From TrEMBL:
GO terms for molecular function: nucleotide binding; oxidoreductase activity. Residues 1-20 are annotated as: Disordered. This is Gfo/Idh/MocA-like oxidoreductase N-terminal domain-containing protein. Residues 11-20 have a biased composition (Low complexity). It comes from the Eukaryota. GO terms for cellular component: cytoplasm. Residues 31-153 form the Gfo/Idh/MocA-like oxidoreductase N-terminal domain.
């Protein structure tokens, strides 16, 4: 639940009541952005991309519990220095903020999303927006009472190659099989080569650390014990965290391209390492492989098979700007012919496309496709996956790493 200090009061000066920094309404309006969370993702992706999109956005407020992180990120914003605060309620209430970007620790996503909505502001919340149904429903209720909306930051779904693939798959007469894979090397390798030179800071109090730990423990208890009926162990908590982090990208995109599965036929949740899930769809299986490797490569794709066509979307690391997302189509031609096409429509990265769509949703007062209601399906998939291999978490000590 949101504490009284976090609740704030509705603010009539919402995004639809102001004209942004350039005094212009409509699609040419510059939105003033308040960012909550000045950690790695803000430094590597969001702040640079918002700066590049200066004709659409301007960063006017930053919030973090680290004074050093605030000073560092404020120095990354060109022009007038943004205001800084350690109080998310102050940022959300500010008339100098039109929209809120929430990219701090997962445990605060819902509380700060509710704050933004209470002030009738659209907010982009980094994935996972929530890990349990209770918190999803808190955001849905806050949306019902707000002029604002939540835009969930699953940026892979905005890549033009992916949206093209959705149309290609939609034209298939029959799907035989699909594969979803996301096996990546150490993220630090990609971050260190991103050219953004992020910094990590530790100037926060013991009380801040304790508050975050308390919130995380509450979320795990709610999700695993009360909603999923899965034992709460360090291993099950880690698995839920991985599904909410890396897994949200894959499962959310899978749902958009082929829909929700009927059930989970089986799962082998061997994490840390690489785990596998087999989904049952109407007449065909879908395999999901995900995990971490020490080999510094980024192996992420979605591939859908029909009798005469195979459509694949290939993703590279989003932390190195400009690496293309491509669509490969392999298909039968005539009786015995074959052709393969690799389509790279653009070098524009998914974070940029996502923010442009966020801007469009805000100025036209539209609901995004990556909504809170849509994200509720991800939580249902987390539940199904963890239940499929729950015996792993009921094992005696020493058996958690593979033996049942």
């Amino acid at each position: 639940m949101v504490s009284p200090a976090e609740q704030g009061q509705p603010n009539g000066a919402a995004v639809n009541g102001t004209n942004g920094v350039n005094g212009v309404k409509g699609p040419d309006r510059i939105l003033r952005v308040g960012i909550i969370g000045c950690g790695e993702i803000a430094q590597v992706a969001h702040i640079p991309t918002l700066n590049f999109l200066a004709h659409k956005f301007r960063i006017t407020y930053l919030c973090d519990i680290s004074a050093e992180a605030l000073a560092h990120c404020a120095g990354k914003v060109p022009g007038a220095a943004p205001k800084i605060t350690t109080d998310a309620a102050e940022l959300c209430a500010s008339p100098e903020v039109d929209v809120v970007l929430i990219c701090n620790a997962d445990a605060y996503h819902v509380a700060h999303g509710v704050l933004a909505l209470q002030h009738n502001k659209y907010c982009l919340i980094e994935k996972p927006v929530a890990l349990c149904f209770r918190d999803i429903d808190l955001l849905l209720e806050a949306e019902r009472q707000s002029q604002g909306r939540v835009f969930v930051g699953t940026m892979r779904r905005f890549a033009p190659a992916f949206t093209d693939a959705v149309r290609e798959v939609g034209g298939m007469s029959k799907i035989q099989y699909a594969r979803v894979r996301d096996i990546i090397g150490p993220n630090a390798v990609f971050v260190d080569q991103s050219g953004t030179f992020p910094h990590k800071f530790t100037d926060f109090s013991a009380a801040d650390s304790e508050d975050r730990a308390r919130r995380e423990a509450d979320i795990f208890e709610q999700a695993l014990r009360h909603e999923f009926d899965v034992p709460v162990t360090p291993q099950s908590q880690r698995m839920l965290r991985v599904l909410g982090g890396l897994g949200t990208h894959d499962l959310s995109a899978m749902r958009e391209i082929i829909g929700m599965p009927q059930s989970v036929a089986g799962a082998c949740l061997t994490f840390p390492g690489i785990f596998s899930v087999l989904f049952r769809y109407d007449g065909y299986p879908v395999s999901y492989e995900c995990g971490l490797s020490n080999v510094p490569v980024f192996d992420a794709h979605i591939e859908v098979y029909s009798p005469d066509k195979i459509v694949r979307v290939n993703y590279d690391t989003p932390y190195v700007k400009g690496l293309p997302v491509t669509m490969t189509i392999r298909e039968r031609v005539g009786n015995d012919g074959y052709q393969e096409r690799v389509v790279r429509k653009t070098y524009q990265d998914p974070y940029t496309v996502e923010l442009l769509d966020f801007h469009r949703c805000v100025v036209h007062r539209e609901s995004p496709k990556t909504s809170v209601a849509d994200a509720r399906n991800d939580v249902e998939l987390f539940r199904l996956i963890l239940k499929a291999d729950e015996a792993r978490y009921r094992a005696t000590p020493g058996q958690e790493n593979g033996s049942k």
